[in-house]
Amino acid sequence: MPQKIVIIGTGFAGVWSALSAKRLLKLADKEKEIEVTVISPEPTLVMRPRLYESKASTLVHPLKTLFDEAHIEFIPGLAEAIHTEERTVDVKYVSGIEMTIRYDCLILAAGSYVNRPEGVTGLEEYAFDIDSLEGATKLETHLEGLGAFPASLGRDTVVVCGAGFTGIEIAAELPRRLGHIANARVILVGNADEVAPDFGSDPRLAIASALTDLGVEFKLGSGVSAVDSEGVTLATGERIETKTAIWTAGVRATPLTAQIPGRKDSLARLYVDQYLRVSSANDVLATGDAACAVADGNSQYALMSCQHANQLGRVSGYNAAAMLLGKPLMEYSQAEYNCCLDLGSWGALVASGWNRDGIKLSGDIAKRVKSYINQKLIYPPDNIQEALRLADPVTLDSDRLFEELAQVAG
Length: 410
What we know:
Residues 4-311 form the FAD/NAD(P)-binding domain. By secondary structure, the chain is of the alpha/beta class.
């Protein structure tokens, strides 16, 4: 019976894990001895970094042909339970059938989900999100339908709850998306006293200036205590009338991390070693948003972003195959970090360094870089040979990559 690598998830880390494992098995001429299986409800890659954009329903990339040509088995279902001692995964197929899948090596790449704190009442019932394809599509339908309501302060006001990366991108895009509303207002709410608190002073000032130019208003220094059908109540007691509250205040790792023994961080990610192995569970690797992995060999951990998920996936897939082949493992490393933030019709901004304290690019050229990333770079190739070539975990560092992107875009 062939050995089996099982991957849970078809996000960026899951897709590149599968392709990277297949690449190494092909090079070793061991494809018949070791199978690669992927579990997910649909054989698709949701372009999650783009869900702040319009036409959300189109932001999905089919994977079936790529998986078929790579001889990657796809199981349409949800992984409901992981049994690390037995090396099995309980799967509920989309058809309703339940089955237990065995593995010799497991890669958990099931991503993350938007965090909705229980202390904020009404989130589940009344707040929109752009965390999932379903959520983004629901928001788009709502935004397009606002014009059917009588004009009012609540109809014309959209409140974005969370002034971090995701909140900034959707707030910057909303003035364009609300062009059919004559007196539209966009209000960005954040706990911190400044917008973009995770950025350095120069990028932060540039981001605030761009949002102001776009007409975005700020309510900073206070969180949200409640959301209902007609408004948002801040922790200060202030109330903002709105029919549209968008929750962007952070994510947490997949609940499946709780089923794997081992230490987790505050975001429920599994701590992994330099090879992305979970030390407390034999033959289990965590990757993407499920992994708390040191990226620079020192103190910086990979972020919950596709920039890190792509490389985490390549390394986890390679190492899963290498473990079964008895080959040396590869250390995960992304020493450099550059953050590319979309700022709507104003342009974009590329902040450099782990502290995001320098501006590498801004305005129109940064927008061209961001557009190239969103519309081309993050999509896996349709050609299987090109996809396997790009699955090589030895890749450009972030600084060199952004230099090349600037040349392409400029």
